[in-house]
Design a protein that fits this description.
about 300 residues; three-stranded antiparallel β-sheet; 5 helices
């Protein structure tokens, strides 16, 4: 009901005004009739009424009322038309306003949709750009790793080849040195053998010439001269003595190997050898021996 009054209040207001106007016209008409009514006639007066005139007045009043009612009706219709026109104008304005609001709302919605579409497109473009950059970085990283692996492989192969070359050169150098060493050792051996043969031949020649016996005799004589005969020494002493000496004849050690004397005799002989240092040189250098053995046999 409240919504009905809110939606049709203009029509209800016009109908109320129209009824109020009818009531006012009716009241004015009644007031006009009462004012134009003939004065009251005393009961004692006698009035002659003309029926024709009375009928004519009544018709005029009725005609006037009809005309007034017609005018009021026309005025009410005019007001109703004007009210309807005003309401239609308001309705048209409201419809136009609603249409404008709707058009603006639609425009805003379209703008928002376009903005969202643009935002989505920008996001998709940004995402695509990020993905492309990521793909580029990943490809670059793959290429870098592949290049690094290739470089490491090349370096490893180069290092392997370098090591192989070094090992080959070292092996060749070792073989060359070994060959040289073998040749040098062989030459040294041959030289030593030659020298040994020559020395043995020379020593044999010297021995055959009696130089070795002469050399041993010189050592025996020097040791006998430096011997202090102990009291326990008996006649006929004969001892074999081993002497270690340097090339210059310096005695390094002396040891009685076999002897027919007692310990005092042995010690006296070893002491005599030490006191005889340096021993006399051999008449031929080829007769030198580091470890020399001679027989100690003093004259009684």
């Amino acid at each position: 009901m409240t919504d009905f009054f809110k939606q049709n209040w203009t029509y209800l207001l016009g109908a109320a005004l129209l009824h109020a106007l009818f009531a006012a016209v009716f009241g004015l008409t009644m007031l006009s009739i009462s004012r134009n009514a003939p004065p009251p006639v005393l009961a004692i007066s006698a009035v002659v009424v003309d029926q024709t005139m009375l009928g004519a007045g009544t018709q005029k009043q009725q005609q006037a009322r009809k005309e007034a009612a017609e005018r009021e009706r026309q005025a009410a219709e005019q007001r109703e038309k004007e009210a309807k026109a005003e309401q239609q104008k308001k309705d048209d304005a409201q419809v136009k306003k609603d249409q404008e609001v709707k058009a603006q709302r639609d425009a805003e919605q379209r703008a928002e949709q376009e903005r969202q579409v643009e935002v989505k497109q920008r996001q998709e473009q940004e995402q695509k750009r990020v993905q492309e950059e990521q793909q580029v970085r990943e490809k670059q990283e793959v290429d870098r790793k592949r290049a690094a692996d290739t470089q490491r492989q090349q370096q490893a192969e180069a290092e392997k080849q370098r090591v192989a070359d070094i090992e080959r050169k070292q092996k060749e150098e070792a073989q060359r040195r070994k060959a040289a060493d073998d040749a040098r050792v062989q030459a040294t051996r041959e030289n030593e053998l030659k020298n040994q043969i020559a020395e043995e031949e020379g020593r044999s020649q010297a021995e055959n010439a009696g130089l070795l016996n002469q050399y041993i005799g010189l050592i025996q004589q020097q040791v006998v001269r430096n011997w202090n005969r102990p009291p326990t020494a008996r006649s006929g002493i004969e001892c074999q003595v081993k002497v270690a000496q340097t090339p210059t004849g310096v005695v390094l050690s002396a040891q009685v190997v076999t002897c027919n004397g007692d310990d005092a005799v042995k010690q006296s002989i070893e002491a005599a050898v030490l006191r005889s240092s340096p021993l006399p040189p051999p008449p031929d250098p080829r007769l030198y021996e580091r470890n020399l053995v001679f027989v100690f046999k003093p004259a009684d």
